[in-house]
Design brief:
Layout: H1 9-12, H2 14-25, H3 30-49
Length: 54
């Protein structure tokens, strides 16, 4: 998939990027995806608690 913005599709077209990312993630082994999502969720919570500074 290509995006009109080129260098930062996650910033320029976040809805399209998210949909494509979700399609890609469904092709990965379930245990790896679940672990990655858990890590991202944990990092997000830590970042939110620290005011966005890691």
């Amino acid at each position: 998939m290509t995006y009109p913005a080129g260098h930062a599709p996650h910033l320029e077209t976040p809805d399209a990027f998210e949909a494509e990312l979700e399609r890609f993630l469904t092709t990965l082994p379930a245990d790896g995806v679940a672990e990655d999502r858990s890590k991202r969720a944990r990092a997000s919570r830590v970042s939110a608690r620290s005011g966005g500074v890691n």
